[in-house]
Design goal:
The structure is a homodimer. By secondary structure, chain A is an alpha+beta fold. Chain A has 14 helices and 16 strands. Chain A has helices spanning about 10-15, 25-50, 60-75, 110-115, 135-145, 200-220, 260-270, 275-280, 285-295, 310-320, 340-350, 405-415, 455-505, 515-525, and strands at about 5, 55-60, 90-100, 115-120, 150-155, 160-170, 175-185, 190-200, 225, 235, 355-360, 365, 370-380, 390-395, 395-400, 430-435. In chain A, β6 and β7 form a beta hairpin. At the A-B interface, β1, α1, α2, α3 and β4 of A face β1, α1, α2, β4 and α5 of B. β4 of chain A pairs antiparallel with β1 of chain B.
Chain lengths: ~525, ~525
């Protein structure tokens, strides 16, 4: 009659609900594993300031394949599904290596063998968001193959650490099966992760390649190398060594706080008066602003924050949210792609005839700063499709799923494109990138962006601005096209007219039209 | 240079990412809090087998409102946003009381003050899925109001327990601020939860009322009472006391296992040979099936499961997934609404002219059994809209968000409705309910159902079947309508024809047409 109760660990929660983190089935899981590790690698490289080299190898686990073939022969085919078949999920080995900042030895087991442990819990723009991805990939590999994972890393010091790990899912703890220390003679710095997992490359392939192509587009300073299970090599070479300035950690903004945040700051603060507390813990709150705020809110400047009552804390939060004179968050902590790099990436990967970039001023939602960058590319090698092709990015990672649920898609559907001289079937691609200290993802699997009003407004305005540029280009082209046709007709008939007029006028020699024709042709060539 | 690492608790994770759990903003949060508690109450009543009485009261926190009004006067309106304004988020008090099975005293603090603790981790159909919802509601209330929550519960024994709780978010632990024990003189059984939270009832109201109306529709045995902040009473009375048979816990099915599940079973099993292990731990695996399987897979029947090697475990999982002769999951553990109750609920809440119900045979995905029930309602008090109105349910809870992302919506968009004689603008509502031991939600916020092939197929077929019934009804009505018009014309002219024929034939007395006319009228009346 009475229900039974139990507790589960965070790892157990994400194990039972791995759909939510993007590990729904072998096809999706092989994609998610690859993307989570690649994103960790790119984040680590940003942090080091050195242009990223990421090397990805996905191979069949031949040992396993041979054993399965042998087994397939030895069981009754009437009773068992035979899976020695190209389209069945197979066992793969995934290896991702980078030249990033590396993971300190003491943190390696937890960083990869425990969920909710990592470096992504600061208020800082990063690709990895939830502190889950890397461990989820290893967890998925483990539950489908029962094989341990290998992590090799060095922060550039004298040693390289090699760990053989397994996740204790019920306790959310890493189990170290083996550990080796190697001499780092060449001063290598970076991380290598290798593990086995069940996947379906045949079905995942196009998504994986699209992901790598789009990643290369928005990270044109990165070298990305991918060797697939069929032994094919895909290279996305860097077109520049200049990297955008790296993202910086920032303090919370007064408009984004709640009671819990304030309590934690109070518990941790070394400051014993409210003026210093306000000045030092919040983004863009200086002496003068702190003074203004505390005075207007009727909170004593010399009051000890640790002595605030429960009521006092609630009131402080409320006053902070409503005070109009706090400076809006600045976006100096953010790291947008930038117009130059964006253009370089688009030209490299999409090869269009025309590109318009629009980079908006920073804006904020819920106290988090964000920047939207949009681009419209037209013609060239862009394919004609029924719909506009949309590329979505957040914190420099491509979003490839659930397009129809994304705020950018909805915005594009609502725009009246004929206003901008865009007709159905034109070869057009739109690119939207948002960077923020907190990207408003709807899901843990980072599939699409939620419908926040401030974000929606910025994306709408940026697309419209780029669309106006496109409109000018198309109008001018239309104009040039009209002129060309007009003059083409002109140049077709001019010789005839010259001849007939000569006859009519009874002259012998037709007028010299070469000069006229040549000016027409000059026009055509332009 | 080197990144800093930290660990966060599961409560902290969901605090930082509460969007994901449906607590995005005050409007959404007040809805999510209410729904999570109501669903817990309905689950508790199912478990007890007694028709549910759920009482919900949402009121303004007047004490707080008075204080805010006072404060609003005392601060400089130039510097602070004035929020004594109807549309601003306010502080509310939410109270949900039920007559369900109650929570044992020793579990109350953890059930409400800790995430990932609860009764929802069994393999059983339940509304609550993630073991998060109740605690998330209290957590949200706490971070917006800094007030503790109250939980009162009794399992029907001699005592009633009253707890005053706060969630220690960083440690994911409840903090018991106070505890009282009362004598349970009337033998009451149930649970009452009461807490304060920031919300926006004006914006959330229509969604909340829609939620309660739809909940009443699929739980027609429940009494639901709601008093809103404006003092208005909404009553959804039960139309029946008969409840569907309660959901039952079930064992995992061989097709749904992975290495982790098997390892946990092996660790916990009291059985020392594979035959007993297979027979006792898996759904619908009896002596004969276990024998067949082990023999065909080449696994010794007397082998001790605890002695299986790593390799052996992996092989066992693979063989179990591929063995064709396991019986498919039966759905006896599931508790669909049932045709009778579904019809009663639809007639009560939608008052249509016509209802067609289609209840499919059970099916499975990934080893989880599920049943789809669909209904189409037409005419009566159903409104005419541009689109078909869609009601979505899973495990007897309404899904009110992200309709366009839901698999049912996509299916409806693809169906060629003219085949079924459905024209645009007809007053039609479609209802889809799926129950399962594991509903394939896409998100923790339980907004919509993912696109699993087996689920998609069942929903498609059930809608089409109900649509065929509707088609018959519409065709017959069309036919009747035609006949009626024909006979109406007939009865208009018959008297004249009778008179003219009489004159033409030179007769005095017209024939008796009364009998003919009366048979026409009889037709019209039918």
């Amino acid at each position: 009659m009475v229900q039974s109760y139990e507790q589960i660990s965070a790892a157990d929660f994400f194990y039972r609900n791995r759909d939510i983190a993007g590990f729904t089935n072998p096809t999706r899981a092989i994609f998610s594993s690859l993307r989570e590790l690649v994103e960790n690698s790119l984040d680590a490289a940003d942090h080091s300031g050195i242009p990223s080299d990421v090397y990805i190898r996905l191979s069949y686990d031949h040992e396993r394949a041979a054993r399965e073939a042998h087994e397939a022969k030895s069981v009754d085919e009437n009773l068992f599904d035979n899976d020695v078949n190209d389209s069945e999920p197979k066992i793969y080995r995934l290896r991702v290596a980078d030249n990033g900042s590396g993971v300190p030895a003491r943190h390696i087991p937890s960083a990869f063998g425990q969920v909710l442990f990592g470096s992504k819990y600061k208020l800082k723009q990063a690709r990895g968001t939830f502190g889950l991805g890397g461990t989820m990939a290893l967890l998925y590999g483990q539950i489908t193959t029962h094989k341990p994972a290998f992590v090799v890393s060095s922060t550039g010091g004298a040693r390289i650490y090699v760990y053989k790990l397994v996740v204790d899912i019920q306790r959310n703890r890493p189990i170290i099966m083996d550990r080796k220390i190697l001499l780092n003679k060449e001063g290598w710095r970076g991380t290598i992760v290798e593990f086995s997992l069940e996947g379906d490359y045949a079905k995942a392939m196009s998504r994986i390649l699209e992901y790598l192509k789009q990643t290369a587009l928005v990270n044109p300073y990165a070298n990305i190398t991918f060797i697939d299970p069929r032994g094919r090599l895909y290279k996305f070479d860097r077109v520049t060594k200049s990297m955008p300035s790296p993202p910086k950690e920032t303090k919370p903004h007064p408009y984004g706080v709640d009671v819990e945040t304030i309590q934690r700051l109070i518990r941790a603060t070394p400051y014993r008066n409210m003026i210093d507390f306000m000045r030092n813990h919040f983004h863009r709150v200086g002496e003068k602003t702190a003074h203004n705020f505390l005075e207007s809110a009727g909170i004593g400047k010399t009051r000890n924050p640790k002595r605030l009552s429960q009521e006092g804390i609630v009131r402080l939060v409320k006053m902070m949210k409503r005070f109009r004179a706090f400076l809006p968050p600045d976006a100096s902590c953010l790291s947008p792609i930038g117009e130059e790099l964006l253009k370089a990436g688009i030209l490299k990967e999409l090869k269009p005839e025309f590109v318009a970039i629009c980079s908006r001023q920073p804006s904020t939602y819920s106290g988090h700063p964000f920047i939207v960058e949009a681009a419209i590319a037209y013609g060239g090698e862009i394919q004609r499709k029924n719909d506009i092709i949309l590329y979505r990015f957040a914190n420099r990672i491509p979003l490839l799923y659930d397009e129809a649920s994304d705020v950018s898609w909805r915005i594009i559907k609502r725009i009246n494109w004929r206003r901008y001289k865009v007709a159905a079937g034109m070869p057009i691609a739109i690119l939207v990138h948002i960077c923020s200290t907190k990207v408003p993802y709807k899901t843990v699997g980072k599939e699409f962006i939620a419908d926040r009003p401030e974000v929606k407004r910025e994306i709408t305005n940026s697309i419209r601005e780029a669309a106006r540029n496109l409109q000018h280009f198309l109008t001018k082209r239309e104009h040039v096209e009209k002129e060309r046709r007009r003059l083409s007709t002109f140049s077709k008939y001019l010789p005839k007219i010259a001849r007939f007029s000569t006859e009519l006028a009874g002259k012998e020699k037709p007028p010299n039209i070469k000069k006229l024709l040549s000016s027409v042709r000059k026009y055509e060539e332009n």
